[in-house]
Amino acid sequence: MSEPASDSNERIAIILKSDAYEDVLLALSFAGIAASANIDVAMFVTNRAARLMRTGGLAEFNPVDRVGAEFMSGAEEMGFRDLGRMLREIKGTGRLRVYLCSRGARIWDIGPGQMLDEVDSIMGTAGFLLEEVRRAATVLTI
């Protein structure tokens, strides 16, 4: 795996732990904005969000309450219908690396052949903390 080409040393680390539609949309929005500003992004997908990194996982959103359903409906009306496509487009910039938490992969029984193509690799929490977070100027937890 190669590092994204960067004309700046600025990096953002995003830790995505929530599997709520609005939180995943926010994480992807932040990643997309950063990538479009030529900032490298490392996204660590863990806990409940890890299940979404299974092939087809980004199509599994089921709002658990009325407010969540209203938000999802409103976001879809604005054009945010396909979060998988959004992830693919951000990956296409060469600025985003996606890491699936090794613990989350075990909990959700996701092996290498079952992950979204956009996942760069499985990584442990310590590795992400000591490698990616340490190099990031900004760290966001969602």
Describe the structure.
- With 142 residues, the protein is α/β, with parallel strands linked by helices.
- The protein has a single domain, classed as Hypothetical Protein Ychn, Chain: A.
- It contains five helices and five strands, in the order E-H-E-H-H-E-H-E-H-E.
- It has helices at residues 21-36, 66-77, 83-91, 102-107, 125-135; strands at residues 11-16, 40-45, 96-101, 121-123, 138-141.
- The protein has a five-stranded parallel sheet.
- Helix 4 links the parallel strand 3 and strand 4.
- Helix 1 (21-36) runs parallel beside helix 3.
- It is globular and about 40 Å long.
- It starts with 10 loop residues before the first strand and ends with a strand.
- The mean pLDDT is 93.
What does this entry show, briefly?
This protein is of the alpha/beta class.
Q: What CATH architecture label applies?
A: 3-Layer(aba) Sandwich
- Mean pLDDT comes to 93
Shape: globular
Order of helices and strands: EHEHHEHEHE
Instruction: List unreliable stretches of 5+ residues.
Output: none
SS content category: alpha/beta
CATH superfamily: DsrEFH-like
Helix content: 25-40%
Count of runs of 4 or more consecutive helical residues: 5
CATH fold topology: Hypothetical Protein Ychn, Chain: A
Cα end-to-end separation: 25 Å
Order of strands in the sheet with most strands: 4-3-2-1-5
What portion of residues belong to β-strands? Answer: 15-25%
Number of domains: 1
> Could you describe the largest sheet, including whether it forms a barrel?
5 strands, parallel
Record field, number of beta strands: 5
